[in-house]
Structure formats: C-alpha cells, structure tokens
Amino acid sequence: MFAIFLTPAYAPFAIAFVVMIGIGLIEAIGLGLGHLDVHADLHAETDGGGVLDWLGLGHELPILIWLTSLLGCFTLAGIAIQQGATLVTGSPLGWGVASGAALFAGAMLNTLAANGLARVMPGFESSVISTDDLLRRRGTILEGVARRGSPARAKVVDQHGQAHFIMVEPHDDKDAIAAGETALIVRRDGTMFYALPDTNVLLQPI
Q: Around 49, how many Cα atoms within 13 Å sit in the side-chain half-sphere?
C-alpha cells in the first residue's frame, strides 16, 4: 500500500508530507530549547482583509503553523484526487495535473483549517513577540560584568512570562553591571542590547 506513495504520481504529496513532519520537528525542538524569537507582521492592506483573510492569515496565525496546515491539506487533497482518479480511470493522474488540482483544493481547505486553528490557539499567537518588545524591561546579568565593548549575558522576562537570554552592554561608557544586578534595557543595535543599571542616578526616585 505504502509503495504507491513512492511513485511519481504521488511524489509531490510524499515530499509535502515529509516537509510537514520536518517543520513539526523544528517547532518541537524550538519549544524544547525555549522561546524562539521569530516575529512576522502580516497585515492586510484592504479594509476587508483581502487575500490574507482568504488564505487564513488575516487572524495573525503564526506562519509556520499556517504552512504546516497548508502542507497537510495539500497532501490530503492530493491523495484523495489520485485515489479518486484511480477508482474512475484505473490509474492516477499525472503528477503535474494532480499537484495543480491539489494545490487549489488544499488552499481552500486550509482557509477553513487556518481560521479554526487561529481561534483555538490564542496562547501561542499572543506569545510571539518582537525583540523590540524587550526594550523598557528589566534584565538580570547572569555572569561576568557588562562593560562597554565587553557584553555579558542577561535574562529578560517578557510580558508573557517567557525568559529571553540576550547580550547586554551598559548604555553609558562609564557604567559596569555585575552579575546578579538588574538593569533597564533602553536600546538595541542588531543583536546587542544596551541598558542602564538600576544604580544609575537617572533611575533613582526623586
């Protein structure tokens, strides 16, 4: 039975299934290692949402979840089309024709699936943040001493309670932030964050 999925007629759907499993493993590994800071803003340009709403992206469903769902729908649609063609004509369709039909049917099916997933996964959706969301939050230096030109590793907890580990330098040249001390993250340059230590006079109450 499974041998038919290795034939050219089923090859696109077998590949899509393998890619879907691969994305699922990447997501599982990412969750196991901690928060992956992947952020994508997808906004519709029209008042009604337009193409993004039709595709199921109008509700800000995480892109990897949407892609996994699309691959799954494409695979199921393709197998159903080829099985139906085999029952009617005695042989499956050519892989090109079947892929085109499966892509159309899978996209329509994925619209329903993606909209359903967006409604039942609010927690996952809300936990995706931008690195800039870490600004104006306090971090704790974990080891070493952060000085200008010599960053130290710090832990910052976001509004969802998830920990992020970033490299921090003091905002001011003269400051140094030792392990265990807290500091306010005030700016970012690429992957480097800059902070004012809580001992800084600017952060002292008047």
A: 9
Tokens of 42: 């997808």
Superfamily the domain 131-203 falls into: Nucleic acid-binding proteins (2.40.50.140)
Query: Which residue has tokens 């890619």?
Result: 19
Q: Is the pTM of this model over 0.70?
A: no
Chain segment 138-168, per-residue pLDDT in tens = 999 998 899 999 999 999 998 888 888 999 9
Enumerate the domain spans of the chain: 2-126, 131-203
Percent of the chain scoring above 70 in pLDDT:
72
